[in-house]
Every structure is written in C-alpha cells, then in structure tokens.
C-alpha cells in the first residue's frame, strides 16, 4: 500500500522550475512596460462616452426616380460599420433611427479624429473610370476661341464635346470650394464636367466605362522607389478587367488629353493618368500625391463597396464626456470595492494562502493595464464604460480560478497528503475545471463580439481579453508561486496563519497528526 501511494505521488508530481517561470513572467511584464514607455503608450484611449467625440446624422438623398427603402438603409449601415471596424476597435456606434423613408443613420465616433472618420465612412464611394475629353485650369473659360464663339460651330469643339458641355465647362470655377463638393451630376452613362479634388484642374469626361462595383479589392501601398509616394492598388473582377482592358486599349496612342483615364470618386477627379499601353491584367493604381492616411482611407472606402444611397450630412455635434466621467468614477469605485472585498475574503478565509490570490490579482491587473495601453497604440483600442464593466466582471472570473485550485489543494491535504504532493495532485485535478470555466467565458465573449454592436462589443472584447489573462496568470504565476510556498516550513508544516492548519482545514488535530505520520 505504501509503495503504491509513493508511485502514485511520483506520477502526478511535476514541479518543473517554478522560480524560473516566475522570473521570466516578471521580466516580461517589465519589458512590456518599457515598450509602452518607448512607444509613448502612457495613457488610455478613451471612448465616446468618456472623452467625448463627434456624432453626425446622415439623411438619405432621393435621386431622380428613386426611393429610399429599409433594405438600402440596412445595407448602408452594414457597409459603414465595416468601414468603421476596419479602422480598429474604436467603439464607434452606427445605427439607423426612424421609420420608412424618414430613417436616418447616426454615426458616433470618439476622440479628436472623429470628424475625419465620419467623413470617410459617409462617402458614397461612387467610383468611375472615364476617358478625359478636355482638361484645363480650374478657373479656365470656354474651349472655343473668341472667333469660334461667334460662329458657335460644333465642329470646332474637340470630338465628343457638345456646346452644352462646353458651356458647363466655362461656367464651372473649380477654384471655389463650394464647387468641389462632389456627388452631384455623376451619372455613369453621360458625359460630365468635373473638378480635381484640389481645384487646380477641371475636366470634361466621357461616360463611365468601369464602375466601382467592378472593383474586387483595394489596398494602400508605398512606392519603394520613392517616385510616386503612397498609392492605392485596385483589382477588378472579371467584368471590370474586360472593360478596363477595352478602355485602355482604345485610348492608347490618342493625343493628350484624350489618352488619359480619369479616376472619379464621388464626382471629383482623384487622378487622371496618361495611358501608355493597354492594361489587361485586371489591376490598376490610383496615384495622386497621397499621404499614408489619405491612401489608407481611400482604400478602406473602396474595399467595402459603394453605399447604395447618397447622403446629405445633417446635424454634426460634439459629444461632451461630462456624464461619462461621473459614471466612470462610479464604475471605478465599484470595481475598487469589489477588488477590496475579494482581497479581504481571501485573507480572512485562506489566511497566508490568500497572499497568492492578492499577488495574482495584482499581476493580472498589471498585464491588463499594459494590454490596454499597447492595444490602444497598435490597433486604436478605446476604453469605454462597457469595456470597464467587462474588466470588472473579470475580477470575479479570476477569483473563481483561484478558489477552484485552492479548494482542491486543501482537499488533498485533508486526505492526508503532504503539501508539496498536494500542490501537484490538486493542480492536476483543478486545472481542467479552470480551463473549462474560462473557455465558456471566452466563447461567450467571442459570440458577443461578432454578433453585437456598439458598447456591447467593447464589453465582450475586454471580457475575452481578461479571461485569457486569467488563464495565463493561473498557469504561469499562481501555480508556480504555490509550488514555491509549499517548500517553506511556515506553509508545509501547517502553521496557524498559513491557511493549512488543522483549524483552517476543519480537521481534528489528532487526525492531522496521524495523517502527517502516515505521509512520512
């Protein structure tokens, strides 16, 4: 019997090198703290409810013969939400309000960059590729000379340009910002007059030959040679590849400017490059002296497709963080009280063993804080009231993991095993329960994150992150620390305040002495 017990103990005992594990963990925390300082991640990025931001209302615009449908509004909400999400975990909110034709889209974006993001996600992204028929300065006059104007002979105008187009060209002054709003009059099957985005040039453009819905992929890139800076790469689908190939084949070899293909976004010319050869590969580049931000924004807009409706921007207002700040103080107070109660419970009930739970909570808190700081720097993660709630709930999850292990450990000691043996046998039986419990929380967090919107996603994200941190801390801090403490006589001998005394374990002293002699 004695030999079998010894064999059983050897089979579950796997102490490893707990001191080295703890040292590596603590060095890693210090290293990530230094990384946060080096990268300037020294403060949390706060969400709309905590630091304020921008809220805008988009009102659907009814085009000629068209109508606003609930399906189109829902589709627009989905596209805008994808664009917002592509910018990171920004805790932005996109929702439709109202009923029928009166439905509006409300976008709320936190922080100082809110206005730029609102402008990005609200673009209709009507992309067209058109042949350039005429090009001139932004404030140029008629294409006809004074003599030709008297005769008004259509034959004196460049091919494809009607007197009506010439008159519209002469009347358009692209140097005026109000004439560069875009969107209006960009009918794909008709020739149009348009400005460049900066107003330096204006154009007469042929009907569109390639449309935005024929773009299958868009991404921002930088010219490694440094010649053109940042640009946007486009890949076309089968129909787009065919039409773009036909267009570039036809204009190659024509005189300038009719050998140019204008890239028109929401009625304004982004770029009008000269076509030197046919492009049949299905890929093209949009160039135009982009900055990295401009190229990335344009790629994001195009990547998720055109909005099914055009929108007029309604009320734009700044959101004050005052209410959120008071709620934050209340939430942090509640979290601090909850943490204090967990610590008091651990110290009163587990006594010396409670130091392990206190240390584990502090290590978990340090890792979570560093994660929030670095994720804010790397992916734009913002902390909101809902996110803070998720982190507070995680305190209970972390405490549950300690309790499961501690209770199993104490049960093993009650069964007569020495503390050093009980540490391993208790861990072998407790870790499965800890993993299963945390897995349930993690699955719930993932489901919430992908199927919820707005603040609920923030709650799910922080809950999932802190659950992963809990698992990490239990395996790489709590268990190794308990292994080390089991080697200290104060704990191994079951002294009064160790948490393993006969009184703490609820067993009679005589039984304890008998068990100890048996174990020996």
UniProtKB/TrEMBL annotation:
Residues 73-132 form the Protein translocase subunit SecDF P1 domain. InterPro entries: SecD, SecD/SecF_arch_bac, SecD_1st, SecD_SecF_C, SecD_SecF_C_bact, SecDF_P1_head. It is a multi-pass membrane protein. One of its GO terms (biological process) is intracellular protein transport. It is found in: Cell membrane. Residues 202-308 form the SecDF P1 head subdomain domain. Gene3D superfamilies: 3.30.1360.200, 3.30.70.3220, Multidrug efflux transporter AcrB transmembrane domain. The keyword Protein transport applies. Residues 313-485 form the Protein export membrane protein SecD/SecF C-terminal domain. Keywords: Cell membrane, Membrane, Protein transport, Translocation, Transmembrane, Transmembrane helix, Transport. GO terms for cellular component: plasma membrane. The chain crosses the membrane at residues 328-348, 355-375, 381-406, 434-452, 458-477. It holds the Pfam family SecDF_P1_head. One of its GO terms (molecular function) is protein-transporting ATPase activity. This is Unannotated protein.
């Amino acid at each position: 019997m004695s030999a079998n017990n010894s064999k059983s103990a050897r089979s579950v005992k796997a102490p490893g090198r707990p001191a080295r594990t703890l040292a590596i963990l603590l060095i890693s925390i210090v290293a990530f703290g230094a990384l946060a300082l080096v990268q300037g991640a020294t403060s949390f990025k706060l969400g709309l409810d905590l630091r304020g931001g921008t809220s805008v209302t988009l009102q659907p615009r009814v085009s000629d013969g068209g109508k606003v449908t609930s399906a189109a509004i829902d589709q627009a909400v989905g596209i805008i939400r994808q664009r917002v999400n592509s910018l990171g975990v920004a805790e932005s909110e996109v929702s439709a309000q109202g009923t029928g034709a009166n439905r509006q889209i409300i976008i709320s974006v936190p922080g100082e960059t809110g206005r730029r993001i609102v402008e990005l996600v609200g673009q209709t992204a009507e992309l067209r590729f058109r042949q350039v028929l005429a090009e001139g300065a932004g404030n140029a006059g008629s294409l006809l000379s004074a003599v030709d104007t008297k005769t008004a002979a259509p034959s004196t105008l460049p091919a494809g340009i009607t007197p009506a187009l010439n008159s519209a060209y002469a009347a358009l002054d692209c140097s005026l910002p109000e004439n560069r709003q875009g969107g209006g009059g960009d009918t794909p099957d008709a020739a149009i007059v348009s400005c460049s985005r900066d107003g330096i040039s204006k154009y007469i453009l042929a009907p569109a030959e390639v449309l935005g819905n024929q773009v299958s992929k868009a991404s921002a890139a930088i010219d490694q040679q440094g010649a053109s800076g940042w640009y946007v790469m486009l890949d076309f689908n089968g129909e787009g590849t065919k039409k773009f190939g036909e267009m570039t084949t036809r204009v190659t070899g024509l005189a300038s400017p009719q050998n140019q293909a204008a890239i028109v976004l929401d009625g304004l010319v982004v770029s009008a490059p000269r076509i030197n050869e046919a492009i049949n590969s299905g890929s093209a580049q949009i160039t135009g002296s982009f900055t990295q931000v401009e190229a990335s924004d344009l790629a994001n807009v195009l990547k998720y497709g055109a909005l099914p409706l055009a929108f007029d921007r309604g009320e734009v207002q700044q959101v004050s963080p005052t209410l959120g700040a008071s709620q934050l103080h209340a939430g942090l107070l509640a979290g601090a009280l909850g943490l204090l109660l967990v610590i008091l419970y651990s110290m009163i009930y587990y006594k010396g063993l409670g130091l392990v739970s206190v240390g584990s909570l502090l290590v978990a808190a340090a890792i979570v804080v560093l994660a929030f700081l670095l994720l804010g720097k790397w992916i734009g993660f913002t902390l909101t009231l809902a996110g803070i709630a998720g982190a507070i709930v995680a305190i209970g999850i972390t405490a549950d993991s300690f309790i499961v292990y501690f209770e199993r450990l104490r049960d093993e000691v009650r069964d007569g095993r020495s503390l050093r043996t009980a540490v391993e046998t208790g861990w072998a039986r407790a870790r499965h329960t800890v993993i299963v419990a945390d897995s349930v929380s993690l699955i719930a967090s993932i489901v919430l994150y992908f199927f919820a919107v707005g603040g609920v996603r923030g709650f799910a994200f922080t809950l999932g992150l802190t659950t992963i941190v809990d698992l990490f801390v239990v395996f790489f801090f709590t268990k190794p620390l308990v292994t080390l403490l089991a080697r200290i006589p104060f704990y191994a001998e079951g002294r009064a305040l160790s948490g393993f005394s006969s009184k703490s374990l609820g067993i009679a002293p005589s039984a304890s002495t008998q068990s100890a002699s048996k174990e020996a």
